[in-house]
Design brief:
With 93 residues, the protein is α/β, with parallel strands linked by helices. Helix content is 42%, strand content 13%. A 3-stranded parallel β-sheet has the order 1-2-3, with helices on one face. The radius of gyration is 13 Å and the shape is globular.
C-alpha cells in the first residue's frame, strides 16, 4: 500500500463521509462530512485510495485534472468508471 495509515486513522475518527453533491443536496443536514480529492498527479494512487475508502464504507468526490499525463492513459475511461463503481463521485477541476 502506498497510502499512509494515518490517513485511514483520521477517516476512522470521522466515521462516514459523503460526496460533495450529497452535501449540497441536503442543506438541512448539519452532520455531513464531504470528502474530496484533487487528483493532480496519479490516477493509479487515486484508485488505490478509492478502493480502501470503499472497503471502509466511505464516499468521496474525485476531481480529475485534464492537463495531466494520466488523461492520455489508454485505460483512462476504465479507471474513471472504476472510481464510480466504488461509489465515488467524479468531477473535473
Amino acid at each position: 500500500m502506498t497510502l499512509n495509515k494515518k490517513y485511514f486513522d483520521l477517516m476512522d475518527h470521522f466515521g462516514s463521509t459523503c460526496t460533495v453533491d450529497e452535501m449540497w443536496s441536503k442543506p438541512e443536514k448539519t452532520d455531513l462530512i464531504a470528502l474530496r480529492h484533487d487528483i493532480d498527479h496519479s490516477l493509479d494512487v487515486a484508485l488505490e485510495m478509492a478502493f480502501w475508502e470503499h472497503e471502509r464504507g466511505l464516499k468521496a468526490t474525485y476531481y480529475l485534472l485534464n492537463s495531466t499525463p494520466y488523461w492520455d492513459d489508454p485505460q483512462f475511461d476504465v479507471k474513471v468508471k472504476q472510481l464510480h463503481a466504488f461509489g465515488h463521485e467524479v468531477g473535473l477541476h
